[in-house]
Structures are given as structure tokens and as C-alpha cells.
Specification:
The complex is a heterodimer. By secondary structure, chain A is mainly alpha-helical. Chain A folds into two domains: about 1-35, no CATH class; about 65-170, Cytochrome Bc1 Complex, Chain D, domain 2 (Orthogonal Bundle), CATH 1.10.760.10. Chain A has helices spanning about 5-20, 45-50, 65-75, 80, 120-125, 140-150, and strands spanning about 40, 175-180. Chain A is globular and about 70 Å long. By secondary structure, chain B is mainly beta. Chain B has two domains: about 65-240, Alpha-Beta Complex (Sulfite Oxidase, Chain A, domain 2); about 250-370, Immunoglobulin-like (Sandwich), CATH 2.60.40. Chain B is about 10% helix and about 35% strand. Chain B contains five helices and 24 strands. Chain B has helices spanning about 85-90, 120-125, 135-145, 170-175, 340-345, and strands at about 25-30, 30-40, 55-60, 70-75, 80-85, 95-100, 125-135, 150-155, 165-170, 175-180, 185, 195-200, 210-215, 230-235, 240, 250-255, 265-275, 280-285, 295, 295-300, 310-315, 320-330, 360, 365-370. In chain B, the strands form six sheets. Chain B has a five-stranded mixed beta sheet. In chain B, β18 (about 280-285) and β19 (about 295) form a beta hairpin. Chain B is globular, with a radius of gyration of 22 Å. The N and C termini of chain B lie far apart (about 55 Å). The chains are: A mainly alpha, B mainly beta. At the A-B interface, β1, α2, α5 and β2 of A face β2, β4, β5, α3 and β13 of B.
Chain lengths: ~180, ~375
């Protein structure tokens, strides 16, 4: 597929050349091919503002934090909607789930349902808190991520989350998803 | 004697006698920009949804975007990372597609144990249909030049939560649009002004509004909205993921919940059918709870991945009746009965409820939602 516009522009040049041979000059009906108006960026320029964090840790910024550091932050910035220790309130429960995924009324908390720890960082950095997304520092996001993992009993209270350790956190439901209309790889 | 009418208006509005025809809003009390508004399907005819009544799903409000400062960046696994201004995109060749957009969570009350009693639009109204016009995304991806390893793209919106979601590149190259226009006019803010990704036939969350970034990758990003949400937990504990296609569905919108048939006699049964796999081939209607079925007439045009209006005249005897509709699409897929869907997937999936909907007409002519 990537060859197609090139091919089209070649045809466009040919048509333009034919038109000029016939003395038509700039013909209103000529097919000029793809417009190609995009402004080139360097990969660094383009990547700079990307917020995507992939399961292998690609996209994670430098920084660090622990659950002990995250606890007061959660209390201050998150608990009003997500409840004490993420047990759920006006916003969904994030931790404290007991009912397994095969039960009548399963808890879809981070520990029971979410397949990747990196998703917590990705979503918190781009979206939270709802009243002021983008206001948390990278260290604060690592600390809040660590706190949520700790409350889901996935890491220790003083275990540091950083670009290396976060993608390595074992998520119990890592293999719990079946690609239906597409496969991850 | 007649009196002169009102003068011209710069932008027309519905009659004041129709002021009750509005979207029904359901949002989080503490976060009013996080929620939905439903299309009042029970009040509409035809298959185009008026733009002001097209359903909304926002995660953190509608952003105010100056088009002069908005760009679409395409980067990642491409030969040339590119940025396009809105003015640039307006110069590209455009295409139009008449397609429905349906939220993956539409009709989710259908999973409840007790039938919800609400107007049809306040239950199934997270589906709407428009003419979307914009630049075929394949043109822009070709311009950037895809690496052979670019199998996925992560689309991102410029709203407050910078909503992101992953899509397979094959679909983006096939029929997706970067839309600038809806129903002939530039997008409205709540539908993604100035740019919206249109992903025909696939679930609503992929149709990213306020589109400003596409990062080409070799894998999905595993965003919150493709892992924790928009996945369907099944009874065995495994969840269906990347359930992109909105499967065939139909609804009778008239008569439907809350309506009243004043007396026995002639009525017109009418409703909507659609399928993310293509055209609707057939809609059958039953007035006896599914024992016998009759083919409804399909209103032209019957377009792929577009709402299709169906109609069938009906003589109501005055005795209790149960109305159902059942859609079949051109792939041969038949809309399932609710019980069959639950047997297959359980009732904790939350998303993708496309079961047959039943309305009971009692002997007084009142219409309610039932499981039958």
C-alpha cells in the first residue's frame, strides 16, 4: 500500500506533462495525485508529547515512587471519588476486590481484572484527577500507581515503582483476555 | 385574516411544540462531564439522526478547541512523522459515509435480571446515524509511509483525559475517515470538532473525537478503555477483548415502552436495524412472543453499516401481545434471543448486548419492556 501515492503522483506528473504538450498548461481537470501537505517532524519532536505507555514499559518517563509515598496523595486527590483505599464510591472500585471473576457478581478491580500494571500509569497520567488532569508530577504518578498495586496486594509498601520495575509487576489476570476481532500481536 | 409570520433566522431550530424531543442525560453527579446522553429514538423517524440529538459519550467534558491551533500528528513506526493542520486537511480529497455509531455499552440494561422500564431511547439510544465527511485515513498513512511492523495505531483525543485507544492498521487503511463534517456542516464540539476518527461499523469508543494523534506501533497500548473497560467478562472468567464489530441488532421503536394504543385496530410497527458487518438483509417481526414471524419492509436505501428503517402494518386485536423484531445481516448473522446470548456469554459482560428486545402490549394498550 505505501507505494500507491507515489504511483499516483507519477500518473499526475504524466498527465500534467501530456497537458502541457498539448498546450493546455494548467488544466482544471488534471489529477495532481495526493496533496502531500503534511509537515515533517523529527521522530523526537513527534514523540515528545506522546503519553502512551506500553505493556513493556515503552513510554514511561524517568521517575520513582512507593506506596508509602502514594497513600497521602491518594487520600488527598483520589479518595473523594474512588473511596478509602480505592474501595469505590462515585467512581469505580480499584482495590479491595474479593469476588473472583467466575463468581455471580465479580469484582473487576486492578488486582483481579487488569492485565497490565502499565495501564495504571498511562491512564492516571493522561486522565487523573478528573478535576485537573495533567497536574501530577511523574514521581507522584509512580507513587499513586505503587499505592494502587499495594492495595491490591501485588507489591510491598516500600517497593519502588520506576520505569524498570513497573512493567515487571506480575498481574494475576495477565492471560485473562481473548482477542475477538483482532489479536494483540 | 392572516398575520405575517416570523422573519428569517440564521440557524433553524425545531418548533417550540417539539421542545420535549431532547437527549436524555445520564452523568456522574460529581463529574458532570463524565457520562452519556441518549438519542430519543422513540421520537424520531427516518434513519438520519439530527445532529443535535446524536448520542454523546464523554469521559471528561467537551473541550473548547481553536481549529487554528489544532493539529493531527502521525508518528511512531512511519518513515516520515507528519503533522497536519485543519487547514491542510480541508484541502485533501474527501469522501462521505452514511454510518451508524453505536457505543459498545449501548443497551447494557439488557443484562439486568429485571427488565428496565424506560423509553427505548433511554435504554438503546447510544446509537445514532449521520453522514460523515472527511479525508480517507489511508491517504494520510500512505503519506507518512507505514513501516512493515506498523500493525496497530493508538489514536488519542485532545479532550481533558486525552482518551486513547488502539486500532488495527488494516481497518484504518480499509475504510476509516478523519471526519471534518457531520450531516453537511463542520463537526459540532460534542461530536469531536474539529477532527473525529470514523471507524465504520466498529464500537463507538474507537471513533475518537477531537483526534490529534495517531501513534503507529507493533502492538496495542493496552489502554484502560481496552482492558478494564470495553472488554466482556464471561462466565469462565476469561474476557473478550477487541470486540470491535457491532453485531446485528434491531429494535421496534413504535410501539415501544411508555406508549399507549388507544384502541384495537390498525397500527404501523416501525423500528431500526443495523449491523457492523454490512447491510441488513431482513427484519422479521413477531406479535406473539416469537412463535410466528413476518417480514417487515425495509425502507430504501439499505446501506452497509448504516441504520435501516423497517415497517410492518399490524392489526391489534385488543388482546395482550408481545412484539419482537429480529435482524439478519448480509453475512447471514441472525440477532439472538436474549436467553441464547446469556447462555453463551453470561450476564457480566456489560458491553455488546444485541439481544432481541420484547415489548408487551396489555389489554389496556399500555406498552412495557419484558423478557419473553
Amino acid at each position: 500500500m505505501p507505494e500507491r501515492p507515489h504511483f499516483r503522483s507519477l500518473i499526475g506528473v504524466l498527465i500534467a506533462a501530456l497537458a502541457s504538450i498539448q498546450g493546455g498548461g494548467a488544466c482544471a481537470a488534471e489529477a495532481p495525485g495526493a496533496p502531500r501537505l503534511g509537515h515533517r517532524l523529527t521522530p523526537e519532536q513527534a514523540q515528545r508529547q506522546s503519553l502512551n505507555v506500553f505493556p513493556d514499559g515503552r513510554g514511561l518517563p524517568a521517575g520513582r515512587g512507593t506506596a508509602a509515598e502514594g497513600r497521602p496523595l491518594f487520600q488527598q486527590k483520589c479518595a473523594a471519588c474512588h473511596g478509602q483505599a480505592g474501595r469505590g464510591a462515585s467512581a469505580e472500585e480499584l482495590a479491595g476486590g474479593e469476588a473472583p471473576l467466575t463468581s455471580q457478581s465479580p469484582d473487576k478491580t486492578i488486582g483481579l481484572y487488569w492485565p497490565y500494571a502499565t495501564t495504571i500509569f498511562d491512564f492516571t497520567r493522561r486522565a487523573m484527577p478528573l478535576s485537573a488532569p495533567g497536574s501530577l508530577s511523574d514521581d507522584e504518578i509512580y507513587a499513586l500507581t505503587a499505592y494502587l498495586l499495594f492495595e491490591n496486594r501485588l507489591i510491598g509498601e516500600r517497593e519502588e515503582m520506576n520505569p524498570v520495575t513497573l512493567p515487571r509487576v506480575h498481574m494475576p489476570n495477565r492471560d485473562g483476555f481473548i482477542g475477538t476481532d483482532a489479536q494483540a500481536r | 385574516m392572516r398575520t405575517p409570520g416570523t422573519p428569517f433566522s440564521t440557524y433553524g431550530q425545531p418548533s417550540r411544540h417539539e421542545s420535549q424531543v431532547v437527549r436524555r442525560i445520564g452523568a456522574n453527579r460529581l463529574a458532570p462531564g463524565n457520562g452519556v446522553s441518549w438519542t430519543p429514538l422513540e421520537d424520531l423517524e427516518g434513519f438520519i439522526t439530527p445532529t443535535g440529538l446524536h448520542f454523546e459519550r464523554h469521559h471528561n467534558g467537551v473541550p473548547e478547541i481553536d481549529p487554528a491551533r489544532h493539529t493531527l500528528t502521525i508518528h511512531g513506526r512511519v518513515k516520515s512523522p507528519l503533522a497536519f493542520s485543519v487547514a491542510d486537511l480541508l484541502r485533501y480529497p474527501m469522501q462521505s459515509q452514511l454510518v451508524f455509531i453505536e457505543c459498545g455499552g449501548n443497551s447494557n440494561a439488557g443484562w439486568h435480571n429485571v427488565p428496565i422500564q424506560r423509553p427505548v431511547g433511554s435504554f438503546h439510544g447510544m446509537v445514532s446515524c449521520s453522514e460523515w465527511t472527511g479525508v480517507p485515513l489511508s491517504l494520510l498513512l500512505d503519506e507518512a509511509g507505514l513501516d512493515s511492523s506498523a500493525t496497530w495505531a493508538v489514536a488519542e483525543g485532545a479532550d481533558a483525559i486525552a482518551m486513547n485507544v488502539s486500532l488495527p492498521v488494516d481497518k484504518l487503511m480499509d475504510d476509516c475517515l478523519v471526519a471534518l463534517y457531520q450531516n453537511g456542516e463542520r463537526l459540532r464540539p460534542e461530536h469531536g470538532y474539529p477532527l473525529r476518527l470514523i471507524v465504520p461499523g466498529w464500537e463507538g469508543v474507537l471513533n475518537v473525537k477531537w483526534l490529534h494523534r495517531l501513534e503507529l506501533t507493533d502492538q496495542p497500548v493496552m489502554a484502560r478503555n481496552e482492558t478494564a473497560k470495553y472488554t466482556e467478562l464471561q462466565p469462565d472468567g476469561k474476557a473478550r477483548q477487541f470486540t470491535f464489530v457491532m453485531e446485528a441488532k434491531s429494535l421496534i421503536t413504535s410501539p415501544s415502552h411508555g406508549q399507549h394504543l388507544p384502541s384495537a385496530g390498525y397500527y404501523q410497527i416501525g423500528g431500526l436495524a443495523w449491523s457492523g458487518r454490512g447491510r441488513i438483509r431482513r427484519v422479521e417481526v413477531s406479535a406473539d412472543g416469537g412463535r410466528t414471524w413476518a417480514d417487515a419492509a425495509l425502507q430504501d436505501p439499505v446501506l452497509p453499516r448504516c441504520l435501516t428503517r423497517f415497517r410492518l402494518p399490524w392489526h391489534w386485536s385488543g388482546r395482550p401481545a408481545i412484539l419482537k423484531s429480529r435482524a439478519t445481516d448480509e453475512s447471514g448473522y441472525v440477532q439472538p434471543e436474549r436467553q441464547a446470548l446469556i447462555s453463551q456469554r453470561g450476564s457480566n459482560g456489560y458491553f455488546h448486548c444485541n439481544a432481541i428486545v420484547s415489548w408487551a402490549v396489555d389489554e389496556d394498550g399500555d406498552v412495557t419492556h419484558v423478557y419473553a
